[in-house]
Design brief:
six-stranded antiparallel beta sheet; rod-shaped; alpha+beta
Length: 139
């Protein structure tokens, strides 16, 4: 009789162990999916793809307002004579980040078109400011 009780206890312990492992793996996969680069839940970012060598490859996450220009203290400072002191900004919005030109002298281009009003951004968009080209991508 005692053997049957021990066997049942072992089976119950094994079942509980498998349930625990299943729950842990499931939770871990959820965390990995949410944080994976390129996943729909990961925030957008700006990546410098052309411009001054010191900015090449710089990535700025668009989870807050990002101001772009020559003025020291901005989130993305670019030393370029074709860029205004405060040239453009990207503002977070409920539908996704929005690009705004700040009445710059030479203008801001989004996918080859001049920005005249706040314009929503999505992954794959290209922004041109002076001689700098930025690409919008998932972090």
């Amino acid at each position: 009789m005692i053997d049957v009780v021990l066997l049942a206890g072992r089976i119950l312990l094994l079942a509980l162990l498998y349930l625990f492992l299943f729950a842990a793996v499931r939770a871990g996969l959820g965390l990995v999916r949410r944080g994976a680069p390129g996943s729909p839940e990961s925030p957008l970012s700006l990546v410098v793809v052309a411009g001054p060598p010191e900015l090449s490859g710089v990535r700025v996450v668009l989870d807050r307002t990002v101001r772009i220009g020559r003025e020291p203290g901005l989130e993305l400072v670019v030393a370029d004579d074709f860029i205004s002191t405060q040239h453009a900004r990207v503002v977070p919005a409920p539908g996704g980040p929005v690009l705004e030109d700040l009445d710059s002298t030479n203008g801001t281009l989004l996918n080859g078109r001049r920005v005249t009003a706040p314009s929503p951004l999505s992954a794959g968009d290209e922004i041109e400011i002076g001689t700098v080209r930025l690409k919008v991508s998932r972090s």
